[in-house]
From TrEMBL:
SMART domains reported for this sequence: AAA
PANTHER family per the UniProt record, alphabetical: ABC TRANSPORTER ATP-BINDING PROTEIN (PTHR45772:SF3), CONSERVED COMPONENT OF ABC TRANSPORTER FOR NATURAL AMINO ACIDS-RELATED (PTHR45772)
Keywords: ATP-binding, Nucleotide-binding, Transport
Pfam families the record matches: ABC_tran (PF00005), BCA_ABC_TP_C (PF12399)
Name this protein carries in UniProt: ABC transporter ATP-binding protein
Species the sequence originates in: Paenibacillus thiaminolyticus (Bacillus thiaminolyticus)
CDD domains: ABC_Mj1267_LivG_branched
Gene Ontology terms for molecular function: ATP binding; ATP hydrolysis activity
ABC transporter domain: residues covered: 7-257
One GO term describing the cellular component: plasma membrane
SUPFAM superfamilies in the record: P-loop containing nucleoside triphosphate hydrolases
Length: 268
């Protein structure tokens, strides 16, 4: 089952072919071939230890594959370091928040804006340029529903607010492809709807390709155009949500026990 169907080559923003990585003889990701369509929302699911975060580490350049290739907009990026992939238009969030606690919320996002434009932190920048950076930073904060917290120190934010700040920083880089690694990890049940609303807004804009790792199946089914299932490091299935939910192999290997396992909402 292939969720991309007969998509044209120029509709594919990211593709892997036979992607494999082994640690000490054990393949954490084994022969994974995926195609991710432009401006679509794809979720990657699987039980703990299925290889989801390892796959993201390969896609974003934190790890180098043992075998296989990764192509972004038909350019081979298999050997490129993370910063080169970022410059090409890939952005990634992590399971743990990655913000500067001793800066304000606005300053965090402003630094991301400056980074995208190749401008170093410079307190002697012209007032006009400084205002432009801050106005854009405020725009991204408004988008993630954090605009009223722009003057707060990042260290004072609740965990869910820090996740939203991280998303604003990621959006400020204006990536073409967003890799979201469990954006609801570690946040309270009460905070989940706010994160879901932000991600839904990002999807509805239709300007970005989004790939999500998430254990919360209600969220996955609500957002996804297609779903890929990893199991034991292998790609078990890839298709539309209704195809995945009715796939007997997926049910037997993963979905059948998912709803009985309260711990499935945490971990890798």
């Amino acid at each position: 089952m292939n969720g991309t169907g007969s998509a044209r080559a120029d509709d594919i923003v990211l593709a892997t072919d036979g992607l494999t990585i082994a640690f000490g003889g054990h393949a954490a990701v084994r022969d994974v071939s995926l195609k991710i369509e432009r401006h679509r929302f794809k979720s990657i699911i699987g039980p703990n230890g299925a290889g989801k975060t390892t796959l993201f580490n390969l896609l974003s350049g934190q790890l180098r594959p043992t075998a296989g290739t990764i192509r972004f907009n038909d350019q081979d990026i298999t050997a490129l370091p993370p910063f080169r992939r970022t410059r090409l238009g890939m952005g990634r969030s992590f399971q743990l928040t990655n913000v500067f606690p001793n800066l304000t919320v606005l300053e965090n996002v402003r630094l991301a804006v400056q980074s995208r434009q190749g401008v170093r932190l410079n307190w002697h920048a012209s007032p006009r340029a400084f205002r432009r950076f801050e106005e854009e930073a405020q725009h991204w904060l408004d988008m993630v529903l954090l605009g009223n917290r722009s003057g707060a120190m990042a260290s004072y934010l609740a965990h869910g607010e820090k996740r939203k700040l991280e998303l604003a920083m990621l959006l400020a880089l204006q990536p073409e492809l967003l890799l979201l690694d469990e954006p609801t990890a570690g946040i309270s049940i009460e905070e989940v709807p706010a994160i879901l609303e932000v991600i839904r807004k990002m999807k509805e804009e239709g300007k970005r390709t989004i790939v999500l790792i998430e254990h919360k199946m209600d969220m996955v089914l609500d957002l996804s155009d297609t779903i890929a299932v990893l199991f034991g490091g292998r790609l078990l299935a890839d298709g539309r949500p209704e195809e995945i939910m009715s796939n007997e192999t997926v049910q037997a290997a993963y979905l059948g026990g998912l709803y009985d396992d309260a711990a499935a909402s945490a971990g890798n």
